[in-house]
Every structure is written in C-alpha cells, then in structure tokens.
Design a protein that fits this description.
It is a single chain. The protein has 585 residues and is of the alpha+beta class. It contains 17 helices and 21 strands. Helix content is 35%, strand content 20%. Strand 2 and strand 3 form a beta hairpin. The longest helix is centred in the N-terminal third of the chain and has 27 residues. The relative contact order is 0.11.
C-alpha cells in the first residue's frame, strides 16, 4: 500500500506521468529497483542533516515508538519504506499527517501516520496510549488551522481511521491472490457510512441564509406562481457508457454488486452528494461493465447511467471523482465489505478556466485511493511497458478504463435543471419527481405559510417521507411507475396545468408510497443483498398490481388481510428547522 503527497492526479497529466516514469527507470531492471533507488537517493540527500537530527532527537519529548500496521513503499525521495509489524521511532510529528521517522537501521524519512499505531510495551502501556491519542488530537487541531496541503484533504481525514482498520483484511485478500494489488477499501463508501452529509437527501433540503430569516436556494416567483429557477456555475448531464478491462477478484470472495460512485471533487474535499450507479455484466465478458441495460418496463433508477450534476463551486480544480467498486462477501468467514477497483478524476475546467468540451472521454483508472499516487490497478498489466510502440499500444488497450460522455444542454434541459438545488447529483429518470418535491416545498414553506417567522411543525407526509425514497430506490421506482401510468391517462391541457399536475401527483404519492413505507410485508432495505432485494420487489410488484386492479390503494388499506406498521403523527410532519439543524451538524 502506498500513499503520496498529492491527493489526486488529473487525467490530463497521464502522459506526462508515464514519460516521467519511463525516464526515471533508466537502466533499472524492474519497479522494485526504481523504488530502492528513490529511497537511497532520499537518504543521500539527508545524510548532511542526520548528525544534527540525532543530536537533537534526545531533546524531543514527543519522540515515541510506533508499530506499522501495513506495508508502505516509498514513492519519492524523502519517504521511508517499511514493512508491517516494523517498529519506528517518530522524530517529528507534522500537522499534515506525514511524520519524520527512523527505523532500526537508522534510516530516516517521512511516513503516513495512518499506517502507524502506538507500540505498547509491557510497562506503562496505558500512559503510552493516552499520550499517543493526545498527540494525534493536537496534530488534527493544528491541521485544521492551517491551509490544506497536498498530502491531506479536509474530507479524507474523516475516513482514514475506517480505512486503516480494513488494511489487515485487504492485505490478507491481496496475499491470498483474491484481489489485485491496486484494490483498496472503498473511500466513498466510508464517507457514506460516516453520516448523512454525503447523501442526496441532505442536499435536497432548502438552505437558510446567514441571517436565518429566509431560504437562500428556495425563492418564490410571483409571476409564474411557482419556485424561481436558479442557474448554477456547473450544470451538465453525463452518461456512463461502460467500464473495460476491470480485473476479476479471486474465487475466495463472492461479488454482490458492481457499481460506480461519483461526486464533485476539488482535489481536497467532496463538494456534493455521492451518487451510485449499479453496473451490469455478462458471464461471457466479466471484465466489462455496462450501464442502462435494455429492460422491459421502466428501467430501475439504480441502473440508470444518465446522471445530472449541479454545482455552484467556483474552484478552478472542480471535477468529477469516479470510483469503481464492488460489494463482496468472503466465502470462508462470511465477512462483508466494499472494495475500490480503481478511481479516476475528470477535471471540468482547463488551465484557462474554460469548460472542457462535451464529448466522450476514455479515462484510465488509477489504483489505490484518491490520495495515493502512482498505484496501478493491476501490476500484471503495467503502463510502463517496454518494447516497440505497437507493443505499448497493445498494453494501453489492456488498461482498466471508464468511458464517460459529457452532454451539452439544450434550453429545455437547462430550464429543468435550474429548478433543482444548486448542488446535487442524481439520476435523470427521477428528475421530474425531484422537481415535484421542490415545488411542493415552495408551496408549503413560501406560499402557504401564514407567517414567515413561524417555526411550527408542518403536517405534510410528502415532505416528511420523500427524502427517504432517495435511499430506497425500489420504492422510488414504484412511484415512477405509478406516476407514468397515471400521466398516460391525462389530457394535454391537464399536463400543461402545473397546479393540476401537483394535485394529481399528491394523490399518486399517497396511494403508492405511504402504504409501502408502512407495510409490514416490506423488508428493510439492505444494500447488495439479493434475497432482500428480490423479496422487496415481489411485495412492491404485488402491491402495484392490486392498486391497478382496484384503481387505488383504498381497498387494500381497508382489507383485513393488509397489515401496516403503526406510526406516530410526528413521522408525518415536516420540521424544516430540524432538517436545517441536521445540515449544520
């Protein structure tokens, strides 16, 4: 496992990085020799300072011994290579998370603190623990006050602990040959597990102004009688085409899901929700992932490769971070986990600040995590191929890659996206439902409130429950299906009446979503569990069939055979200040 001083590598620098790697190899026989030469070069540069540092080391009260919890290979001069279980003496703890260390041979260099844990001796173990925790806390506080350096990002620090805890599992799988050497625990999955702040339901809620007296991104347009359209700095649509040459895991793990997670990223932190698109694959071509398959009926939103993106970030480094991942279960232990099969960063603006053109991009994947550099997904197919130009071209074709198409917006698409929150990523197939929700928000919070200073709870099941649908895509698909069926029965004049459409949508929502969310027959949603997903689909399909036959859910609700979970009235009320407080946490 290797970590470099840069958080992320731009796609445009791929060729330059390859040329640098080729020139650095020189007459070396393999990559191991190259790493050893880098390490020795770093040691020669520090020989003049070693004597001074050794004289001062006994005066540093912060010097402590730490144990390596994983293998680390130096990627550049000044880094220190170490093995798992090796004991290192920490000479200096820097606030950027890279510490100066010395090994048993006397070699010195920078090491990542996320690979270290305090070395507990038999005596004074508790005091060592307390001291180490205090040092880490102090280092984090200092880092918060300083500017973000190349090695760290404000968002990544929240998941490093979770990632380091999985190092042992990943090392074991790599040693067994169960996964390629470039696979890592999924970074974006860990961010999703940290809390609600990276989910679509979080960004869907309105945001208050600094004065807390009005909504910043939700305004009423008296002329049109609906919410005001708000353009954003970035507004685009992309299509995930396919993933090619993705390495296969070994037989010791069972793959439950193949998917791509994407988010807006500026090189330091995540700037949007993390959106997930599930991939499909054919047994004859297991190394190729595809999206938006041809299915009968409505395409499930989880498989929809057409995504919209909106952002108001003015960062010149703004781009899209793609992480290919698999959900797996180990056959021997039953342990579940999420692995990253590679990542790539597509910068949305060039050096002059001009948006990149709308076209199809062939993006070569990087191994490791977004804050590692120079890691390949599969070492057996190296980008630094030797031989003829033809041989190098053939090797490049075998590299894991992601095909993405950026689409230009027409006037209609731009107007539709302008009704959404300023920061959001989602599926195009659900965009009309999201707009209905935002319009109902405007009606309730801006148009229908007797006093704008009132903070009372609002009785509205749609506002209270709709955000949960974003975490239950199968119920969202049930709503899409019911609305499409109802919409087909409407006249053209009715479809042009916005108020009438909202009223019909509310009826469909109450007939479809509310009974499903409180049904005792519907198992709780669990990601990548085939049995649970199949059971939920059966319950939903049976319910929709009954609704179609009975022209509504009333008969099913009154039937003695229908059992629904009890609920409190607070579950049907919308507390917008409570949602704002959640966003402030």
């Amino acid at each position: 496992m290797s970590i470099s001083r840069e958080n992320i590598t731009e796609i445009g620098a791929l060729t330059e990085r390859e040329e640098d790697d080729d020139s650095a190899e020189g007459n070396e026989e393999d990559d191991d020799d190259e790493e050893e030469s880098k390490e020795s070069g770093g040691e020669e540069e520090e020989t003049q300072e070693e004597e001074k540092q050794e004289n001062e080391s006994h005066q540093q009260a912060t010097s402590k011994e730490y144990t390596a919890v994983g293998n680390f290979t130096a990627q550049q001069a000044g880094d220190l290579t170490f093995k798992k279980g090796e004991i290192l003496l920490i000479i200096e703890k820097k606030p950027d998370g890279w510490w100066m260390a010395k090994n048993a041979k006397g070699n010195k260099g920078l090491v990542p603190k996320t690979y270290l844990e305090p070395y507990h001796k038999e005596e004074g173990q508790e005091s060592s623990e307390e001291g180490s925790e205090e040092d880490v806390d102090v280092g984090d506080e200092i880092a918060d006050e300083l500017e973000v350096t190349q090695r760290t990002g404000s968002r990544w620090s929240t998941v490093r602990k979770a990632l380091s805890e999985q190092i042992n599992t990943v090392d074991a799988l790599t040693t067994m040959g169960a996964i390629p050497t470039g696979f890592r625990p999924s970074t974006l999955f860990q961010l999703l597990e940290e809390g609600n702040q990276f989910r679509a339901s979080y960004f869907l809620q309105p945001e208050l102004t600094p004065s807390q007296l009005a909504f910043r991104d939700l305004m009423w347009d008296a002329k049109t009688g609906t919410i005001r359209a708000r353009p954003s700095h970035v507004s685009l649509i992309l299509t995930l085409w396919s993933c090619k040459m993705i390495p296969l895991p070994g037989m010791s793990i069972q793959v439950l899901s193949r998917h791509v997670r994407l988010c807006l990223f500026d090189g330091n932190k995540v700037l949007s929700n993390i959106h997930t698109v599930r991939a499909t694959w054919q047994p004859k071509k297991p190394r190729t992932w595809t999206f938006s398959p041809q299915v009968t009926g409505i395409l499930p939103c989880l498989l929809d490769g057409d995504c919209f993106l909106r952002s108001n970030s003015l960062s010149p480094d703004l781009g899209i971070l793609f992480e290919l991942g698999i959900s797996y279960i180990r056959n021997s232990t039953g342990e579940r986990g999420e692995l990253s099969c590679g990542w790539v960063f597509l910068k949305l603006f060039d050096a002059s600040g001009i948006p990149i053109p709308a076209k199809t991009y062939e993006l070569f994947l990087n191994g490791g995590t977004p804050y590692e550099k120079g890691v390949e997904v599969d070492n057996s197919v190296s980008r630094r191929a030797h031989g003829s130009v033809f041989h190098q071209m053939m090797m490049m074709r075998r590299q894991p890659q992601l095909l993405v198409k950026l689409r230009s917006l027409n006037r209609r698409s731009r107007n539709i996206l302008s009704l959404l929150p300023e920061i959001l990523i989602g599926s195009m197939c659900c965009i009309h439902l999201l707009i209905f929700y935002r319009q109902i928000l405007g009606d309730v919070l801006l148009k229908g409130r007797m006093s704008m200073q009132s903070a009372d709870f609002i009785s509205n099941p749609v506002l209270a429950t709709f955000p949960t649908l974003l975490e239950q895509p199968d119920v969202m698909d049930a709503l899409r299906s019911s609305w499409a069926e109802k919409e087909n029965t409407l006249k053209r004049s009715e479809k042009r009446d916005g108020e009438f459409l909202k009223a019909v949508f509310l009826l469909v929502y109450h007939d479809c979503v509310v009974p499903l969310l409180h049904s005792t027959l519907l198992p709780p949603f669990r990601w990548a569990e085939e049995e649970t997903e199949s059971a939920r689909w059966k319950v939903i399909a049976d319910f929709l069939k009954q609704n179609q036959e009975n022209k509504g859910a009333l008969q099913a609700l009154l039937s003695p055979d229908g059992v629904h979970a009890p609920f409190d009235i607070s579950e049907q009320t919308y507390d917008f200040l409570g949602e704002i407080r959640k966003k402030a946490v």
